[in-house]
Structure formats: structure tokens, C-alpha cells
Amino acid sequence: MQEQVLINIENLSKSFGKNKVLRGINLTVNKGDNLVILGRSGSGKSVTIKCLVGLLKVDKGKIEVFGTDVTELNYKELNKIRLRIGFLFQNGALYDSMSVRDNLAFTLKHHTKDLSKEEVEKQIYEALENVGLEDAIDKMPSELSGGMVKRIALARTLIIKPEIILYDEPTAGLDTITGKEISELILSIQEKYKTTSIVITHDIICAKMTANRIRILKDGLIHVEGSFEELKNSSDDWVRSFFEYE
């Protein structure tokens, strides 16, 4: 059976002034994939997914999501696509002045109009239950650990029931044990909700735990792709250097 392509990127280029970050990225993501993108700092990993959801305007290239070229959409049309995509930002990006409950309610109401108070509450609890933090519902972000912030941010992403989730450095700033817990959570969410994911990371443990495919960026291009084991045993010294600290 032919795999369904949810994301298709062709010849994507993006510069900031004279700094050419992406020089012609080609990438496909099939339904059900957990694609990990590795690369050194500044290689364009985060820029790629920000272009994908229209947070950055591309210089050149095509980005098809659900069969639609998002580079040609107006703001209203782009928002319809974004309703189907969850984005977990590197710092969690919770609203500091809002409780956990209000952070989730704000996102839910923004995406889904005309919900009853009871339905909002039910969906908030369900999202928090998925990340194991129901007890944190009335806490403020300042009361949460780094790992809890990531979990709440993930709950806020899940509450809109996305088909695609983009994870930008999901384990950054976390200790090894908490990082593994977040990686396990990414897998359990994929299994429960049948999501398709792109995971941007420099954490090789996270990559090993979550990826069914890996692509490595170098000099603004996809340098190599394969499974974790294939790339770990690559004949390319530069590629193998990513896996030295496993």
C-alpha cells in the first residue's frame, strides 16, 4: 500500500541577509512518521519547521502540507492548515501570567469556538492526563520545573488534536532522566493519537528513542538520511561524530 505523504518540501531556500541558512532542502514526511532532523547549531533545523508553518517566509521553494502549498496561502488560509498542526516551542512558551488551566483553555478556545465550559474543562483534564500532570492544573508556570513546563506545553499542543506535531528541541535544558521521559511521551502520544512528527534535536538519546527516520543537515542541505543504526555505522566520519556520545 502506498504511503500517504503529509509534508513535501522541494528546493527550500532561506537566507537572513548574506547568511544562506537553507540552500535547497528536499524532504518528504509520510503519515505516521517520526522524522528526526539532526544538525549542528545554526544548520537550519528550526528554520525549516518555522518555514513549514509560515512563521518564516521562504525565499524560494515549495512546501506542501496536506497537499497544499503553504507558501502561496494568505493568512486566513494558512491558519486553517495551522489548526491541524501542533508546534512545541523550545522554551515551552507558556503565558507566565496564566495558570496551567488558563494556558490550555486559551489555546482551546482560540482554535475551537462555541465550546461549553464543561467541554473545555473536560478537554483540559484529558490533555493534562496524557502528560501525567492533572495535579498541576492550578499552578502558575513559575511553580513548574523545566520538565513540567515541557509537559504542559505538550498538553497545550495536544489539546487541539493535531495531525502533525513539530517538536523544536523537546529535551533541551533537561537532565538525562527527564529528557528520556519526554522522549517516551513523544512515542506514547504518537501511538495514542496516530500523529505524524518532526523532531528537531541535538540530543542523540532522544533521536534514538523517537526516530523511525533521521536526516542530518549540513551547510544548508540534507547531507544524509537513514535509520539510527545505518547512520551510526556510516562510513562518513562526520556523520558518525553525531553518535559518539550515545
Automatic annotation (TrEMBL):
Keyword flag Kinase: no
Keyword Metal-binding: no
GO molecular function, one term: ATP binding
InterPro entries: AAA+_ATPase, ABC_transporter-like_ATP-bd, P-loop_NTPase
Membrane-traversing stretches: none
Keyword set, alphabetical order: ATP-binding, Nucleotide-binding, Transport
Pfam families assigned: ABC_tran (PF00005)
Record domain ABC transporter: where: 7-244
PANTHER family per the UniProt record, alphabetical: INTERMEMBRANE PHOSPHOLIPID TRANSPORT SYSTEM ATP-BINDING PROTEIN MLAF, PROTEIN TRIGALACTOSYLDIACYLGLYCEROL 3, CHLOROPLASTIC
The protein's name in its UniProt record: ABC transporter ATP-binding protein
Organism expressing this protein natively: Flavobacterium crassostreae
